[in-house]
Amino acid sequence: MNNQPYLSVIVPAYNEAKNFHKGTLDSIYEYLQREPFSWELILVNDGSSDSTLSLLEQFAASRQSVRVINNPHQGKAAAITSGVTESHGEIILFTDMDQATPITEMANLLPEFSRGYDIVIGSRKDRKGAPIYRQILAYGMIILRGLILRLPIRDSQCGFKAFTASSARKIFSILAKIHPPRVLSGPAVNPGFDVEILYLGRKLGYRLAEVPVIWTHQESKRVRFAQDAISGLKELLLVRFRSLTNAYGLKS
């Protein structure tokens, strides 16, 4: 394996023992092994309270090009940020442990980098199987995103995104200053995280491509309709406020 792999795949994990036993990490690893380019798989434990950490460590110990980062529980955003910081790839991709969008979909994202794009995101083709409240949240987010941030993206929330190393490091270095680490309790999903990444990418002038991907609804106790709707609106307004007050330190 080269000193600098072509691809870094980051998988954040919080209480993911159930998904681990379903073989989701095995499917990711086996797919990557068939690729002709060099890669690394970075598993970030987000302070799990179940057996996730030991399972990840056992998985990494018996496989090449896999490593584990163990963090206190700070939420998905912090887990991905630490993965980006520790990555070495020319391209950095993050994907969810439940594989709602399977790793095989990266075959649709990676070619866009050779066309000059800096950020390539998965856009769910449809939301079949998703509860009605999830669909309402999704379409509400599209409308609010356009009104508040003027961000012309169909699906900002799909957990399947890839970046050039330079764009990822610039964006996440800004986020690290805005969102200092803090220990949390219970499930912590920040609905504004994905939007803020893409908003910063656009403000920084990076070229962004949105690519249709397969997505299968996975049941999660971490999604709460009323709380997530309010939190989503609040996060959009905060991103707008930070931009207006130049909290990101970007030129207009």
From TrEMBL:
<dbReference type="GO" id="GO:0006487">
    <property type="term" value="P:protein N-linked glycosylation"/>
</dbReference>
<feature type="domain" description="Glycosyltransferase 2-like">
    <location>
        <begin position="8"/>
        <end position="134"/>
    </location>
</feature>
<dbReference type="InterPro" id="IPR029044">
    <property type="entry name" value="Nucleotide-diphossugar_trans"/>
</dbReference>
<dbReference type="InterPro" id="IPR001173">
    <property type="entry name" value="Glyco_trans_2-like"/>
</dbReference>
<protein>
    <recommendedName>
        <fullName>Glycosyltransferase 2-like domain-containing protein</fullName>
    </recommendedName>
</protein>
<dbReference type="Pfam" id="PF00535">
    <property type="entry name" value="Glycos_transf_2"/>
</dbReference>
